[in-house]
Write a structure and sequence with these properties.
- With about 325 residues, the protein is of the alpha/beta class.
- It contains 10 helices and 13 strands.
- α7 links the parallel β11 and β12.
- The longest helix is centred in the C-terminal third of the chain and has 22 residues.
Length: about 325
């Protein structure tokens, strides 16, 4: 597929989705996903150690592998079964004696969850119940969207069928991986999506953060996910976790300061957008102004277009106070 054909594919899919109210969200996700694809569309087998018990496979997305003395947890699957099989193979190499393999997903989008069938039989799949509800409501739509982005996506996602998790939970589930390694799976509310899941690894104080905390990356709310206000509320809860290391899904790992940086970024965008809204500035003008300010503040960031997030702020219900 040439570049112009590749650009038209998301537009055609978007037109088909207008009636479902997903067009704008799909266009933004499509652009972000294609940028990430150029970074590393196929998972490799090299790993980077994030903390004592946590390793990363860098890719689309970053995969977290948590190793205890008797079980291993993998966070996210990669796009399709081929990438899922790679993640499972790397985990087996890191922990050859472990008899149990757990898998969880940060949210329901295909690069995070559609590689599950590449994992070995007996893998225990667990995710929060809100995320599972989103999967049941929009999972097939998302697979169709991603298949339409490129021939490579279509190949990766051929024949994918989304299975029901072995375990779902409400706000928290704990997995004892052995040797004192504990994984806390947490749902604190909506942010990038309604069902965003966070994974806190102890005793490492390592957070596998999904899209909720990123590094030099603008926030993005997909479809009917969270709101800027609910994202800030989630980050307030994350701030209380005493995190030392953060592994995001689409940006580089960092230390616990990424949490405060994420909160400061969202708060600043939201405050500026609400000020412009009160002044009667149209949403598109506000998005342009705020994006220009962010470009000046963060010249080394790959993307500083905040127009979508500014619209999310404008669309928030008025504060009843």
């Amino acid at each position: 597929m040439n570049r112009s054909q590749n650009a038209r594919a998301p537009v055609a899919k978007c037109m088909a989705l207008l009636g479902m109210g997903l067009c704008g969200a799909f266009a933004a996700l499509s652009a972000a996903a294609q940028v990430a694809h150029m970074r590393q569309p196929v998972l490799g087998e090299n790993t980077t150690k994030v903390s004592d018990h946590v390793w990363e496979i860098e890719g689309f997305p970053n995969i977290g592998i948590v190793v205890g003395s008797r079980a291993t947890l993998i966070v996210d699957t990669g796009l399709g079964p081929k990438n899922g099989a790679t993640a499972a193979r790397v985990a087996a190499r890191l922990a050859p004696g472990n008899s149990k393999l757990f898998l969880t997903t940060t949210h329901f989008h295909p690069e995070h969850a559609a590689g599950e069938s590449g994992f070995p039989a007996g893998t225990i799949l667990i995710r929060d119940s809100v995320q599972q509800q989103e999967m049941e409501k929009h999972g097939q739509e998302m697979l169709d969207m991603f298949r339409g982005m490129s021939a490579q996506n279509k190949e990766f996602l051929a024949g994918v069928v989304l299975r029901t998790p072995d375990i779902t939970f409400g706000q928290e589930a704990t997995i004892d991986l052995g040797g004192g390694v504990i994984a806390r799976l947490l749902w604190f509310g909506g942010a990038h999506t309604k069902g965003d899941e966070l994974t806190l690894i102890e005793p490492d104080h390592t957070l596998i953060s999904g899209d909720v905390v990123q590094n030099k990356t603008l926030p993005f709310i997909f479809g009917d996910g969270g709101t800027p206000a609910s994202w800030l509320a989630v980050l307030d809860k994350v701030a209380a976790l005493n995190v030392a290391h953060v592994l995001p899904d689409h940006s580089a790992p960092g230390d616990g300061s990424l949490i405060a940086a994420e909160r400061d970024l969202i708060s600043a965008i939201r405050t500026q957008a609400l000020t412009l809204k009160r002044q009667g500035v149209p949403v598109d003008v506000a998005g342009t102004r705020i994006s220009a300010d962010l470009k000046q503040q963060h010249p080394d960031w790959g993307n500083t277009n905040a127009a979508g997030f500014v619209k999310n702020v404008y669309d928030e219900p008025a504060d009843p106070r």
